[in-house]
Amino acid sequence: MEYNYITPWLEGKASGIVQVKSGDQWISLIDPSKLQFSVYDLDAGNTTGRNLEGTMLRDRVAIKEKLTMEFPPMQAADFTLMLSLVANQTFMCKYFSLKTGTWREVEMYVGDRDAEAYYNYDADNSYECMWQNIKFNFIEV
User: Fold this and answer.
1) What separation in angstroms does the CA of 80 have from each of 47, 122, 138, 140?
2) Model confidence, pTM
3) How far apart are CA 73 and CA 79, in angstroms?
4) 2 falls in which pLDDT band (50, 70, 90)?
5) Mean pLDDT score, 47-66
């Protein structure tokens, strides 16, 4: 499902590359301007390391994925909506996984959410708050 984002230059730019479940609906986030995929191993801390001969000993307990996204500038209302979609401790996310080569529906949490505010002034000295350099990390639970 595509949400009707209000930033004019984002019209049609929520194509479903990354979706978040809200209630019973999948809502497409605004298409990231940059999307980085990471696959990483989680090792058990007390049984992973090197022995006295220098041999690596690993106890891999899981393989997880991470999405690092950057978004184009947007109006405050669109940014607020995106923040609200990932406000819960965890949420369901749908994306195309490089690890599996398929679309996945995965429980994730959001890491840091960074953005910079700037103000767009017009001739009568009124302004509108805009957001730029927006970055989110989604990490598989």
Assistant:
1) 43, 23, 17, 23
2) 0.85
3) 9
4) low
5) 91
